[in-house]
Amino acid sequence: MIEIKQDAFQQELEANKLVVLDFYSTECPPCEALAPKYEALGKLYGKDVRFIKMFRQENRELAEKFGIRSSPSVLFFKDGQQVGEVLTGGIRRSDIMRNLDALLPGSRVKAIHASVKPKVTDAETIVLGGGPAGLAAAIYLAQAKVNTVVVDPLLPGGQVSTTHQVSNYPGFIEPQPGFMLAHNMAEQAKAAGATLKVAVEVNSVDLVKKEVLIDNHETLRAKKILITTGASPRYLNVEGEKEFYGKGISYCATCDAKYYHDKEVVIIGGGNTAVEESEFISKFASRITMVQQFPYLTANRAAQERALADPKINILFSHEPRGFYRKNEKMVVKVENLDSGETNELFTDGVFVFVGMKPNLEMINEPLDKDQWGYLKVDADMRTSMPGVFAAGDVISKQVRQITTAVGDGTIASITIAKELR
User: Fold this and answer.
1) What is the pLDDT of residue 198?
2) pLDDT at residue 283, as a whole number
3) Predicted TM-score (pTM) above 0.90
4) Helical (H) or strand (E) element with 51
5) CATH number of 119-232+357-421: 3.50.50.60, 3.30.930.10, 3.30.300.30, 1.10.540.10?
């Protein structure tokens, strides 16, 4: 695997029948999460496929030629022509493998898959999720000499890793970049003795047996499981949203705001995340139009005041998006005025969506007790309704979801687990 510049790309296509290209960026958590998967697959498929990487910021001409508007993006080529899917955002190992397999003869695919040997790893506690709750728990568990494995399909940090700045975490006088706070938490957990298996694919979770299968070949076994999978952005589920995800629509300001220097963007939402991220996006964009369904902002007062005072930000109150499409080089947002029922089109260069969160429980099949919004119910010690299974952080039912409350939840859960194991 090598890293190249755009002027060497055509030579790579001419010299290699099969090529896979990763466009990555800096300060991009999904890019960092992809890197170890990409490297591992390079070793697995490297005899048949040429693996190359390209720094997107320094090779924008080629990225724009392929319509790449989000990082990371993975493209596949055969005989000099682009084939297969364009993978972007939170790219899974299986997605890359599916496209690589399509490039090769069936017999070769079978041989490669057969070379992946099953593996079993025993631990005392598996922490599902590497956000603040999971990392805080891992620190306490490891310091208590509990054999702990943290599993996360992305990088450690959860939402913190994609937050521009954190200004209210105790111990730091100046605001901290979210990715650095997440990085420091992860390094502290590792220094305490916890094992971190990040950027992996979680294939199955068996809460009864306390087993987790990752990357289709490694089975983790433990006595306790702590669910700290957090929450993730809600989608609008309107026309064009899926089609333009990563191609004009983004859910991560830290990842993609830098690509809208001196350009216009639309932000969907008016809560804390939308308003606070608008401050960061405003450093790059020339103009921001915020679409808010209510006749007022719902963010905290300080954030509202800053947004309302920013001359770059214009707010459309009582409006909702009804669809996304493209005209020439512009993204178009179809919006409805909720007071009059009239629809209008907003022409822009990019769209950022911040409309709330949902618990990340897709990997959990067992019938754990949940509240009316789907968050897990726990007792005062963070026990769920299933023996030996705990939960903490944004995934549980509670009134306040902050980094500090997630850390507190993880601390309580870890102390309870350590006592039960000892």
Assistant:
1) 86
2) 95
3) no
4) strand 50-55
5) 3.50.50.60
